[in-house]
Amino acid sequence: MTLEWRNVIVHSADPMALGQWWAEALDWVVVHSSDVEFAIRPEPDRVPGLEFVLLDEPKKAKSRLHLDFVPDDQDAEVARLEAHGAQRVDIGQGDQSWVVMADPEGNEFCVLGRRRE
């Protein structure tokens, strides 16, 4: 049996707005858009991607799944994401080497320390 990882699904109150936010944050391309779905990928034929799917209920708790990103420069990337609308959040992580942030709908993600050489 062979499996190909295609997408990470993100439930969203506004799939187009949130998907566009992530497309710009990651510099990814839009591969599908409708009233209820918005899909992005690193390149048109490269997977996995992110697919934002309409869910008409608010986020209620800490996300059980989140994305981790490894930047070249953590401070610069955190500042860029904050300027783009992300917020730093405290989910009880304490003093760590990574920064926990949330997108405009409150989905947490982490910006890890500098990429290893």
What does this structure look like?
By secondary structure, the protein is of the alpha/beta class. It folds into 2 domains: 7-57, 2,3-Dihydroxybiphenyl 1,2-Dioxygenase, domain 1, CATH 3.10.180.10; 65-117, Roll (2,3-Dihydroxybiphenyl 1,2-Dioxygenase, domain 1). Helix content is 19%, strand content 30%. It has helices at residues 15-26, 74-83, and strands at residues 7-12, 29-33, 37-41, 49-54, 67-69, 87-88, 99-102, 108-111. Strands 1-4-3-2 form a 4-stranded mixed β-sheet, with helices on one face. Strands 5-8-7-6 form a 4-stranded mixed β-sheet, covered by helices on one side. Strand 7 and strand 8 (108-111) form a beta hairpin. The longest helix is centred in the N-terminal third of the chain and has 12 residues, at 15-26. The chain is globular and about 40 Å long. The termini are far apart.
Succession of helices and strands: EHEEEEHEEE
What fraction strand?
A: 25-35%
Q: Mean pLDDT across all residues, rounded?
A: 92
What is the end-to-end distance?
36 Å
Can you count the beta strands?
8
Number of helices: 2
Q: Which structural class fits the helix and strand makeup?
A: alpha/beta
For CATH, the homologous superfamily of the largest domain is named as: 2,3-Dihydroxybiphenyl 1,2-Dioxygenase, domain 1
Number of domains: 2
CATH topology of the largest domain: 2,3-Dihydroxybiphenyl 1,2-Dioxygenase, domain 1
Gross CATH architecture of the largest domain: Roll
| CATH class value of the largest domain | Alpha Beta
**Low-pLDDT windows of residues:** none
Major beta sheet, strand line-up:
1-4-3-2
Main sheet record: 4 strands, mixed
Radius of gyration: 15 Å
Helix content: 10-25%
**What is the 3D form?**
globular
